[in-house]
Amino acid sequence: MPTLQSFAPDTAPDTLLAALRQDGALILREAITPAQVDALHTELRPYVEATAAGRDSFTGTKTTRTGALVARSPLTRALIMDPRILALCDGLLKPNCERYQLHLGQLIRIMPGQEAQAIHRDRWAWGPYLKGIEPQLNTIWAVTDFRRENGATQVVPGSVDWPDDRQAQPHEITWAEMPRGSVIVYTGSVFHGGGANVSDTERWGLNLTYSLGWLRQEENQYLSCPPEIARGLDPALQALVGYAMASYALGYYSPPLPPGAGPELVPPDYALRGEAIAQDARFGDGAMLRAIAEKVGASGAVHNNL
Ligand SMILES: O=C(O)CCC(=O)C(=O)O
Known about the structure:
Layout: E1 6-7, H1 13-23, E2 25-28, H2 34-49, E3 63-66, H3 69-72, H4 74-80, H5 83-92, E4 100-110, E5 136-142, E6 154-155, E7 174-175, E8 183-187, E9 192-193, E10 203-212, H6 221-224, H7 227-230, H8 235-241, H9 270-273, H10 286-296, H11 299-305
Helix pairs in contact: 1-5, 10-11
The site of 2-oxoglutaric acid (AKG) has 9 residues, from strand 9.
């Protein structure tokens, strides 16, 4: 059976990125304390226990998936902003976007009797269209111990470059076994799936995922975390949720006001802060335009077309 590399939580980002690029997945051991895990469990429990199981074999008929975690769970907000994970997003995603974003937040509870989920790639959320680019970084924080028997995530290390139609063989699959408080980090390209729970205890995994800012988010964050809730969040989290321009021309809106009653083109954070937004941070941000012009190497053409 292959193994997943497992690291101390203070391991340098470059070491972790090298493992992530090679294997597509790794474990950060005991990255948060048992007390933090207990508090998370207590905060999430009412929502999780009220969540109905999935309706098909992929979402899992003995699995619950609870979302809107930015809005509902202050403790989850801190994990979304964990600097060790954001450093990995910087390394893996930032080279292919001006800004990365929260793609989804979901507590996945795998209950006794749940069969193994089909092995898949998370990047398939966008279909087969993205080629040669890593769109996604995933985390699943262990809120309970992850054991092979209770549904620890199945992973196929080294499968990031496989063709989409290659089937993982049993000897190529391993399980992300880890004590609670640990986190599995994996890319959108590695083959993996939820494990079978043949035990009599539940497995709770907090799935927080990030994606390139120019892609559609899996969980619609503007509906799961609408402006009236987002207004109270830390500005860096607001931006990660999506209340920020993703590039020079991505994400603006026009407040639907009567003629002349307000500004015409504004960035999404205008919905949170209104006129308090600095003029130079609005649609048309020169720094973002220059960044794109430099990357495409055709500044004149970019200036003329935007
Ligand atoms: O819960 C897990 O261990 C993995 C779940 C998963 O891969 C999915 O639902 O797409």
